[in-house]
Amino acid sequence: MLEPIRHQLPHGITLDCLACGTPGKPLLLFLHGFPEGAFIWEGVMAPFADRWRCLAPNLRGYGGSSQPEAVEAYKPKALVQDLAALIALESPGQPAACVVAHDWGGALAWNLAIQQPQLLQQLLIINAPHPGAFVRELQHNPAQQAASQYMHFLRRPDAATLLLADGARRLWDFFRTPAGDLPAWLTPEWQARYLAHWPQCLAAACRYYAASPLVPPRGASDDLQPLPDALLHTPVATHILWGLDDAALLPELLDGLEAWVPQLSVERVPGASHWLVHEHPERVI
Fold it and tell me: How many Cβ atoms sit within 10 Å of the Cβ of residue 85?
């Protein structure tokens, strides 16, 4: 049985969460991406409630969680602080058994595993690039540079207003198949949940992009610097589940990760898109 709970973190941020399983059991932490919310994990979490404590927060800015107005409040350091505090509250003195993370949640999970590896035993990444690979591809891969140009739009101060206009037409475009259709999993019921979710959080969600130091170049004059080596390596055992038909995050992002993540396994899923959590929940489970 899923229950909504609120966690007040020591540094003043409140996170609304969905939880199931008995507190005190090994923690599974589920992190959503853009433009979603904790609710995407409901079907994935439930099968684990008998043996684990399962927790899916609405990340800072989403749902009923705190929504600071300053762009600086959405820098990676602040967002990772939220995750570390949440693990400390739900699993005091013990690391999370596994962090399961997609898209922006995956970006934060990579940073957590790199900066504070003692806080998690395992990491499951779903279509979220390792920071070193993302910088490399943004520097040298024209196809990834082109695929990431949408990030500039999401950094605009008026991005949320434009995205919500005309029945959220631009937001639905994020989900469309190459043929231009909405995917089969995006039923009218799911659409209604998104339409209820977006107005309350979209402005804050776009601040993730505005605050991000990783931005695709627009021309030869743009200079994206490599990340320091200390921000690339993690000893955490990591499994990557990757939909190969992701139009925004290309498969080349999987190349060379072994140099940074020695305990790595990669599972490529042909025919799956960026929205693999919805398309293949059984694979995630």
Answer: 17
What are the beta bridge partners of residue 267?
241
For residue 64, the model assigns a pLDDT of 96
CA gap 240, 45 in Å, rounded: 18
The answer for residues whose C-beta is within 8 angstroms of residue 28's C-beta and 6 or more apart is 21, 45, 48, 52, 53, 54, 55, 96, 97, 98, 100
Write the CB contacts of 189 (distance below 8 Å, at least 6 apart in sequence).
none
The closest of 198, 175, 182, 152 to 274, measured between CA atoms, is 175
- CA-angle at 74, arms to 73 and 76, nearest 5°: 115
Residue 19: in which H helix or E strand, if any?
strand 14-20
SS3 content of the chain, % helix, strand, coil (to 5): 45, 15, 40
Helix runs in the chain, H state only:
42-45, 76-90, 103-115, 131-140, 142-147, 150-154, 159-175, 188-211, 276-279, 281-284
Q: Distance (Å, rounded) from C-alpha 221 to C-alpha 200?
A: 37
Name 48's bridge partners. none
Question: For the segment 133-181, what is each residue's pLDDT rounded down to a tens digit?
Answer: 999 999 999 999 999 999 999 999 999 999 999 999 999 999 999 999 9
pLDDT, averaged in runs of 10, over the chain (285 residues) = 96 98 97 98 96 98 98 98 98 98 98 98 98 96 97 97 97 96 97 97 98 87 78 97 98 98 98 98 97
